[in-house]
Amino acid sequence: MTIRTVRLGTARAPDEGLRIGTVRRPPRGVPKTEFARQDWYDVWYPNLAPSADTMQLGQAAQASGSDRDWAAFRRKYRSEMAESDASRSLDLLAALSHGTSFSVGCYCENEARCHRSLLRELLAERGAALG
User: Fold this and answer.
1) pLDDT of 11
2) Would you say residue 116 has pLDDT above 90?
3) Could you tell me the CA-to-CA distances from 93 to 18, 58, 128 in Å, in that order?
């Protein structure tokens, strides 16, 4: 049993399990009834998405390619995930990963400059089984 990080909207991997969308907004122009069928996500969980302000930092870091911009985004997002509600969500997902397979994802093309890479780190720090 494992947690995978995925790009939402891509084909599902075998045994990927439930796909959780950790994004601020649903995909544009896609009816709710089509989210799962079109491989976006099964469950929308914006609680683990960056805040709007933090998301702007992340988009700037993606656009600039600057390590300094990425470090600023990283600090701010990790700070948000340290808040009690987000931290409890991460603890829950880490614990669930030992009994079931599921995935968490975002729309970003480059995982290395996406909050899902940081989610992976945060889950690993909590002892999650990662795939």
Assistant:
1) 96
2) yes
3) 12, 23, 8
Q: Is the pTM of this model over 0.85?
A: yes
User: Per the structure block, which two tokens stand in for 95?
Assistant: 């614990």
Helix (H, G, I), strand (E, B) or coil at 81: helix
Strand, helix or coil at 128?
Answer: coil
Report which secondary-structure segment, H or E, holds 102.
strand 102-106
> In the 8-state DSSP scheme, what is residue 6?
E
Q: Which residue, among 46, 64, 53, 43, has the nearest Cα to 110 in the 3D structure?
A: 64
Cβ-Cβ contacts under 8 Å for 24 (sequence gap 6 or more): 46, 49, 50, 51, 52, 55
Q: In the Cβ-directed half-sphere of 22, how many Cα atoms lie within 13 Å?
A: 27
**54 contacts 76 by C-beta, under 8 angstroms:** yes
Rounded to whole angstroms, how far apart are CA atoms 89 and 91? 5
C-alpha closest to that of 114 among 55, 66, 30: 55
Per residue in 42-84, pLDDT (tens digit) is: 999 999 999 999 999 888 888 888 899 999 999 999 999 999 9
